[in-house]
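Q: A small favour: would you put together sequence and structure tokens for a protein?
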Amino acid sequence: MTADPRAQSFDSAAAQYATSRPSYPAALFDSVEEYAGRPLAGARVADVGAGTGIASALLRERGAQVIAVEPGAAMAAEFRRALPGVPIVRGDGNALPLASASCDLITYAQSWQWTDPRRSVPEALRVLRADGALAIWWNTTAFDVPWIAEQHERIARHCGVESRSAMRPSDDEAVRLSGLTGLRVARRQLRWSRTVPLDTHLANIGSRSAFLVLAEADRRAFFVDERARLGGLFPGGSVEEAYVVDLLVALRP
């Protein structure tokens, strides 16, 4: 959605993304319904930056009429394999290929940070109906779990990125979004976890943009060391990943 090479890197690992990335808890969609003031069942929803369809599948299970927007060819191909009955269009969150006033809800799952809000916010408002809502969310790092916090520091050092959750909005993001949209913004954080094989955990980390833009040798070096380290922490071969979903919903007054 931007010229940032990290935003364009996911196509190189679309299959890995589809099989290893975490989903979202049911409580997230309960909160979206609560804040939006309407059920997802029957709602016309545009899932922007839909990727391989993780959020789209859950929205459809709640009865939403989903149309997906995804810029990456390989990600869109994975989406079509997973959700052949859900329409998907190639497009950019900064210039939505959707009709004006055509959606009850627009969602950005893990994708808002790749947009330019000066363009994506007016586009979202154009596409939303008068009583519509904009929902954006991230699976963020549970820093209170010691081994997760330590791993995050190792990732930051190895990839040369800032040592904070790359997906998490800043504390003033809700205020900034309200200022850009003129809408009321509600925020909720939801804790959840999943237990996965060590291979899946490592593949999930490797599907992050910070790793995808590294040279193959640099990626391999990190994961050789990380596999050995986590093998000692989790001798049974299963890893419990802890997340905090950070949800923002912008509502028309």
User: Anything to note?
Assistant: Strands lie at 44-48, 65-70, 88-90, 103-109, 128-141, 184-197, 238-251. The chain has ten helices and seven strands. The CA atoms of residues 121 and 180 lie 7 Å apart. The mean pLDDT is 87.
